[in-house]
Amino acid sequence: MARECYICKKKPMSGRSISRRGMAKSKGGVGQRTTGKTLRRFSPNLQSVSALIDGKTKKIKICAKCLKAGKIKKSI
Questions:
Q1: Alpha carbon distances (Å) from 47 to 35, 38, 65
Q2: Is 76 a residue whose pLDDT tops 90?
Q3: What's the number of CA atoms in the CB half-sphere (13 Å) around residue 50?
Q4: Mean pLDDT of the chain
Q5: Residue 6: is it exposed, middle or buried by C-beta count within 10 angstroms (0-12/13-18/19+)?
Q6: Which string of DSSP letters, residue by residue, matches 41-72?
Q7: Residue closest to 5 by CA, chosen among 54, 13, 75
Q8: Rounded to an integer, what distance in angstroms lies between the CA atom of residue 74 and that of residue 5?
Q9: Other C-beta atoms within 10 Å of 73: how many?
Q10: Predicted confidence (pLDDT) at residue 49 exceeds the cutoff of 70
Q11: Is 18 helix (H, G, I), strand (E, B) or coil?
């Protein structure tokens, strides 16, 4: 639960980073060619906040999307 949103359970996702070389055809080149694919991680935008949970103040990690939507009540 180190990198997980407390509310929506959003976690890091796996993906690829693609390296390309050459100029795009739309810019007058002969086209781009893929030279490599490496694995990478897409991490959620987690923020540490003090929130009221069951009437008690608790420090939780919440993603920015849930925070902006107002899904928790912040403590003072």
A1: 36, 28, 10
A2: no
A3: 4
A4: 94
A5: buried
A6: EE---EEEEEEEETTEEEEEEEEHHHHHHT-S
A7: 13
A8: 15
A9: 8
A10: yes
A11: strand
